[in-house]
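Ticket #4471: complex job returned nothing on first submit. Input attached below:
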Amino acid sequence: MSEQTARLEVDPASDWRPVSSRYVVVDLVGTVVSGVIITAGSALPWLISGLPWLVAIPAAVATIVLVTAVLTPRRVRAIGYRLRDDDLVVRRGILRQRIVAVPYGRMQLVDISRGPVDRWAGLSEVKLVTAAAASNVTVPGLAEADAEELRDRLVALAETRRAGL
Amino acid sequence: MTDAPAALADGEWHRLHPATPLLRGGAVFIAIAAIVIGNLRDRVVDLLFGAPEYGGDPIDEIVGRGLVPLALLGVLVVILVIIAATWLSWRMHTFRITDELVEVRSGLLFRTERKGRLDRIQGINVNRPLLARLFGAARLEITLGAGDGSVQLAYLSGSRADALRGEILRRASGARARDADAAAAPTAAPAGSLIEQRVGELVAPELDPALVSPDRVVRMHPGRVIASTLLSGGTVWIIVLAAVVVSGSVIAGAASGEPIAAVAGIVFTFIPMLIGWVSFLIRRITRSLRFSVAATTDGLRVGYGLLETTNETLPPGRIHSLSISQNLLWRPFDWWEVRVNRAGSSSAQGAAGRQNTSVLPVGTREEALRIVGFALPGLLDEDSRAVIAAGLGSGGGFTTSPRRAAVLRWFSWRRNGLLVRPDAVLLRRGAIWRDLVVVPTARVQSVAASQGPLERALGVGSLAVHTVAGPIVARVGALDVHDVEDSFARLATTTTAAVAADRSQRWRSAEGTA
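Support reply: We reran it on our side without changes. The output follows.
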């Protein structure tokens, strides 16, 4: 029970909209590709010096990458967004949770971006820009039609509540 | 031509101060000429009064071949071309100020045009380097939004720069009617000769006493400036570093059995560092002298500088967050520093060589609180100011960290806290290095709640309030997770309401309909 109370929860019961389950594949590809590169890089000291105990570094890195990869479905399920009356709320993360609320009037730009893997999976990422760089709000893994609908909706909402800086 | 501000802001194209080329790059030419003359002096004397031949020197070669007239002609042509080019570029560098826009056109071969909307102004800076002051000129810089950069008018005649600043701010304020007093009150032209005028301008007080009433001004005492700079955070690190260097070299000397080497080690590593530090301190002190903060109707006016003077006006509503902080060494004197986050920053360096974010480098508690009131006009009510005053200590009714968070905040858990009010969010941190951040809810861009694994184990979380980038990061951690959730929910509604009600950006739009 203590685990329940200690966890940061904002509107736990309400209808968080999930991202596409296909985003698991996209995220997994990213994790595996970067994981392989980082593991190879961390293996360099061991390969060059030939000291047997240095193998611990790539082994540790590979373990972390593996755990990250295994947890991908859970992490993707943890991503959610809600369009409330006056703001957009985005949550993500399981180990390291972050929940951000951006009032519609504060949005300056709404971007849609698609990486190569995103395109192959038919997904898009919606990114919000406010005057604060720290806001850093992205909603990844939306089907292309959904992303465009979300963007148009956000732009329309931002237009009705336009405010200065 | 009159000195009335309307003369410069009439929507027509105007040129800059005639001494501009000299002030912007002329000093460099004078320096080059001085170096050339200094180096050639011996050669010229030798040539005129007969001296031994060195040979292989271009000047000897020219003299030997009888090309002196041609060479002189060449030099003359180069000088004439440079003068013509600078004169032309001065002719082509024009600006105009209309009711909505400020526009600058410049460049001889490559034309550049800059436009800035007056209602996007984040601050206006009037800077007078020493050389420009001798010519009675000033540089006016208009800071626009974060992505838009700034528009510089360098240089204008000094009195016109001040008048123009007032006029631009009036137009940005949204005042509908022209205030008769503001628009038609040209600075009384100083009588007397040119030299008397210059001397008058040089010895004039940095802040015109007629501009604001004395009770709306905070000045910094020079003694306090010097003492506070000596007792700044950097000094703590220098002392720590000195201790490390001294003990390190003593230990090394003892180990190697050569005490002389140890002493030399101290001298050679530490003395240059000390010299650098002292010169840094002196520069900071001279820049902070004659510092004054005034609350004018068109915003917070921060002025400073002894030889090179700068004053900057931040219109109301342009300050996005504000922090009142105190380091350990200032505690006995109850001194505080007030800094701000603002959208866009001017290229001019702030007082004490810091970025232009410190509106009060050092002041007493009472002065710091007055500045807070000045800086956020119409955004803070009386109660909030009282809460801020109490919050500098450990009162104020903040939601503070629970006892169990002492693991994360060893000394400050009792003080570390958050308070959400309808008009502002207050975040208080630190017991040794004290800090109180005020973010007006009308300026909040977004809100984030977060929790890492360690925080989860303790049942705590962090809350961050995002504003435009700056030195202040409004984030407080180690709060009870339920308090974080409640504050997050409350902030969402307060922010929306405050943004809808906010009129501070066009601070005079309600008045002046007559």
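The two ends of chain B are 30 Å apart (CA to CA). Closing as resolved unless it happens again.
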